[in-house]
Structures are given as C-alpha cells and as structure tokens.
Amino acid sequence: MAFPSEFQFENELQFVNELIIPLLQRLGFVMVANYHGTHEFGKDVVFAEIDRFGHVQYHGLQAKYVASIGLSGAGELIEDCKQAFNNPFRHPHTGTDERISSFYVVNGGSISEPAQQQYFNSLISQYGANVRLLDGKSLISLDRGKVSGTRQDDLARLNGLLLEFSHDRYEAEVINKMVDGRHENGKCVIPLRRLRLSAMEDFLRSPIALISTPARDESRPIGWPEIRLSPSQVQVVWHNFWLANKILDSIMYGGAQSHREEMAQLAVSHINQVLQIMDKLEKHVKTEIEQRGPLCAV
How many CA atoms lie less than 13 Å away from 1 in the CB half-sphere? Predict the structure, then answer.
C-alpha cells in the first residue's frame, strides 16, 4: 500500500523532523528529544508530559517510513519495544537516566492487520495498554484534528507566563540574599518565599502555536530543530524551580542548622542555573505578544 498522498517526505529522517516532532509539540508534549540515528535502544524520539499530579511521564517512539509493514516486519517492532522499555535513556538537559512509561511505533505507510495482531499479542501481557501503533492515516487525522486554542486563550497564557517570570525573578533575588546572608546581619536565613509554577505548568500542558520569527539559539542540542518559545526550555525552568521549592519546604522545620544552610544553598543553585534561560524565554514571550498586536500586552 502506498503512502498517503499528503506525505512527500524523502526519507525517515525528514519524516521525523518535519512531521513527527512538530506534531508531538502541537499535541502538547514537552521535552521532545530527537535521538534518531543514535543507539538509543528502540527509541527514535523521546517525549514527555506532566500529569495532573505534577509528575513527569516519558514516552518512547520508534519511527518507520515504509509503504507497508507486514507480518514479517512485526518481529523488529516487538524487539524495538522490549529494548525501549528495558533500557533507560539519557535526559538531554540533566544527564540523568530516565525510563519510559509507554512506547509508540509510528509508520508513514500502513501496518497490516496480521502485523498488528502479532505486535499486540506479543507485548500486551507484559506492558498492558502502554504499547501503541500509529499508521499514516492516523497521523493525518491527529494533525487535522488538533485545534489550537483561541487567540484570547493564547494571549492570556502568554501574559500569565510573562507575569510569572517577572515575579519569580524578584523572588529569586530575595531568596538569594536571604541564603547568602545579604539580607540579615550576614547570616543565612531559610526563606519562607516560594517561586510560582502555575503559568509554566499551564503552558506545558498545551504549548501555544507560535507566530514570531525564530531566534538562533547556539545552546540548543545538536540536531534539534530551531524553535521559538521552546516547551523543553520552559520545562527545564519549571523543573529546577519545583526542586528548589521542594528543598526549601523540606528544611523549614527541624534539623541541624549547618544541614539546613547546606540544603538552602542547593535550592539556590537550582534557581540560579536557569535564570538566564528564563530571561531568554521572557524575551520570546514578549516577541510573541508584540507580533499578535499592540493591544495584547498587559
């Protein structure tokens, strides 16, 4: 069976870069990392989402770009799935080893019914509903069915991000002064203040379609597409601020003063290492708002 007429990709790499990754971002996934061409045990792409409890769930995807996958090709897909679950991947921002909670096989063409049966019958007993198959028609349906939020909703969320970044910059400065002893008689004071996360969480649940001209970012990982307001970078800021808040919460009561001061310094280090990223994101947000019209900004 031929590819859908809408697909004019020359190879698998173009299929991944120009359809799969942008579609995952439009669907609201974050940290969409392209491992295509590297030995990552069955995972061409790794992507994440934040569940309703605030936890990060990672997913793996194996991409194929062939006209049809028959029964003889099912064995390779099954092995890819097992390798993907059995082996962790290296997080592109933190360098930590993480594991996926679900696995997707995506093909630009069709997947025969016998191949589907063999795939699911071989894996469901071990992985349950965490193994999925998507063919070219399914991808087209997802792409067409993804409807962007209204213009007003987008602007409200962008302005929310802008206000949250401004607030968190101020709070970060106060927390730094308190922990470094610049706030009270040269002594470390455990801060009661916390960083806000709600606007970033709202953005990460459903990233906004962007219209501004992309800015060149030399710090982005090699092989990643140039993007404007990167959900992955927002996630890095959110993750470090979340950790800082948790650390400060954990040392509010009890414990030796020296240990509390050491942990407070750790919280500050998580904050400071992403302030520059937050500054860049704030500029991108302002550009987005400006290009949507002069009456959009708060």
Answer: 14
